[in-house]
């Protein structure tokens, strides 16, 4: 049975010392098995030490980027081979900040997804429209292009392991998230599109999550949407109190949703 996803992207907000302190607090507060798929994405420099601190907990560690090649003249890049040596499980690919500030393209996203899958890492594939595209009603068109380009040559067996993170660019780093019904509409569309690309009927096997200014005030409504399998959170996950409270809301809201869906299926 699916568990709700709760991913926490630390961007470049924490120094290594701060990241280790935070990981230590997570370990103390979330020691046991969890009814949620949890991961945190620290900066590269903190990954090994955060992984060591979180060993034995249900919180996995990932990175925020990687190179599409394994070795060679790629100054400043990080190889998937090094990530494997560090026992990294997840890799974020195509975040809007990487696209706009560091020149990530659909082509490199596609190459990185392929390389990550070849080595058994789980890609968190980020996608989302800009405000102008939303205003022109082009979000679905843009997302179709991003998704088809990113999945070019990726077989179904791999595609169903990816975490698809819909992060509308206009909702990242803001006061509030996208409206839950808008997020639902788009994530439902993404699920259907994935099903269509891979010739499946409903696409329930794909994991589709929402990201962009998720906080304590909106997480419950977001998780209760039928097509939202979890959330990917930036700033609001950087305080342990807010993280803990959010985790409780996610688990609770998820179990209510599952009960409701079962009831609907039986009727
Ligand atoms: C993000 O950039 O992936 C993100 C979700 O950030 P925030 O929650 O801070 O908007």
Automatic annotation (TrEMBL):
Keywords: Cytoplasm, Gluconeogenesis, Glycolysis, Isomerase. GO terms for molecular function: triose-phosphate isomerase activity. InterPro entries: Aldolase_TIM, TIM_sf, Triosephosphate_isomerase. CDD domains: TIM (cd00311). It catalyses: D-glyceraldehyde 3-phosphate = dihydroxyacetone phosphate. The keyword Mitochondrion does not apply. Pfam families: TIM. It is found in: Cytoplasm. Its EC number is 5.3.1.1. One of its GO terms (cellular component) is cytosol. Homodimer. This is Triosephosphate isomerase.
């Amino acid at each position: 049975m699916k568990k709700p996803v709760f991913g926490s992207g630390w961007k470049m907000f924490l120094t290594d010392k701060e990241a280790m302190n935070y990981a230590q607090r997570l370990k103390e507060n979330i020691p046991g098995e969890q009814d949620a798929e949890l991961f945190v994405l620290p900066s590269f420099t903190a990954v090994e030490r955060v992984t060591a601190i979180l060993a034995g907990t249900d919180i996995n560690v990932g990175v925020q980027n990687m190179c599409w090649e394994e070795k060679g003249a790629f100054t400043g890049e990080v190889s998937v081979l090094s990530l494997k040596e560090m026992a990294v499980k997840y890799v974020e690919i195509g975040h809007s900040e990487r696209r706009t500030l560091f020149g990530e393209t659909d082509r490199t996203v596609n190459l990185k997804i392929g390389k990550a899958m070849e080595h058994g890492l789980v890609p968190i594939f980020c996608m989302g429209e800009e405000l102008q595209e939303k205003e022109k009603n082009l979000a679905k068109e843009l997302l179709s292009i991003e998704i088809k380009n990113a999945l070019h040559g990726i077989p179904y067996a791999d595609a169903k392991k990816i975490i698809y993170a819909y992060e509308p660019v206009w909702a990242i780093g803001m006061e509030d998230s996208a409206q839950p019904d808008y997020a639902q509409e788009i994530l439902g569309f993404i699920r259907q599109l994935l099903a269509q690309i891979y010739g499946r009927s409903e696409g329930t096997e794909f994991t589709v999550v929402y990201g962009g200014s998720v906080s304590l005030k909106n997480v419950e409504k977001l998780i209760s949407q039928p097509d939202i399998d979890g959330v990917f959170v930036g700033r609001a996950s950087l305080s342990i109190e807010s993280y803990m409270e959010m985790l409780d809301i996610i688990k609770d809201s998820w179990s209510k949703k599952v009960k409701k869906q079962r009831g609907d299926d039986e009727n």
